[in-house]
Specification:
seven-stranded parallel β-sheet; 15% strand; alpha/beta; Rossmann fold; two-stranded parallel ribbon
Length: 279
């Protein structure tokens, strides 16, 4: 039996993962800004579920949750940084305060969660940190530049973290979902208030009022939860786990394009070095 700490459990992927973790007999510290949304899970699993309020923007709440997990379950084995939300706008349309708030939730929140659980994981020489990113962290669509930036930042930090803590017995992985039937493209999606007509055919097509995919995404959150469980149980997890056919196809397109550019511009890249001299 492992103890999981999962952020953003009120709906969507976080909720599905919380349910699966508890159904499979593990302990779970399940969190949401409004912990009342988790009452049914806490009541259904009174011995293994601990539901707590948590807004990952606030360091004091993070410390309270981690301390409560330590007191109740004697530590955290798996941290899943799932809390986050989307924001759509052309780069020029982006609102500074809205962008900063999103970074507080999508980037600084996970980083602060990681730093709060690492001392305990280091003490026990084991643990797993799973950061829920997005395929947007690898291949960005117009209108998603700022949201993708939060995920790309989290991914870069995760890559460094993995190398730093692997010798300490701690595993790190990134999950890159594509479109799943959650509230991400509906209630949870934010966007710039004043769109510019000049971007109507690029970023404008991805605004909420033009969205036609919400509720029809191919991804099943319950199946994603099972995939994340498989990831957590792997002795040698991949750096990135892509979820969904669409996300996999986008990643393949992106990697092939990068490789093509690398080869096409190889001579220019090499031309910037000092001449090599014989030893």
């Amino acid at each position: 039996m492992a103890t999981w700490l999962i952020t953003g459990c009120s709906t969507g992927l976080g909720r599905a993962l919380a349910e699966h973790v508890l159904q499979t007999g593990h302990n779970a510290v399940i969190t949401a800004r409004d912990a009342d949304a988790l009452t049914d899970l806490a009541e259904a699993y009174p011995d293994t579920a601990l539901a707590l309020p948590l807004d990952v923007r606030f360091a004091d709440q993070i410390q309270t949750v981690v301390a409560a997990a330590q007191d109740r379950f004697d530590g955290i084995d798996v941290l899943v940084n799932n809390a986050g939300y989307g924001y759509r706008s052309a780069v020029e349309e982006g609102e500074t305060d809205a962008i900063k708030q999103m970074f507080e939730t999508n980037y600084y929140g996970p980083v602060n969660m990681i730093n709060a659980v690492l001392p305990g994981m280091r003490h026990r020489s084991r643990g797993m940190i799973i950061n829920i990113s997005s395929i947007a962290g690898q291949r960005t669509a117009p209108g998603s530049g700022y949201y993708a930036a939060t995920k790309a930042a989290l991914e870069s930090t995760s890559e460094a973290l993995r190398q730093e803590v692997e010798p300490l017995g701690i595993r790190v992985a990134i999950v890159q979902p594509g479109g799943f039937r959650t509230d991400f493209a509906g209630r949870s999606l934010h966007q710039s208030a004043e769109p510019l007509e000049v971007y109507a055919e690029t970023a404008g097509k991805r605004r909420k009022e033009h969205d036609t995919i919400d509720g029809r995404q191919a991804g099943d959150p319950a199946k994603a939860a099972r995939a994340i469980m498989t990831l957590a149980e792997a002795e040698q997890p991949p750096m990135r786990l892509i979820l969904g056919r669409e996300a996999l196809q986008l990643a393949e397109v992106d990697l092939n394009q990068q490789l093509d550019d690398l080869m096409d511009w190889e001579s220019v890249s090499l031309s910037t070095d000092f001449p090599q001299t014989e030893a």
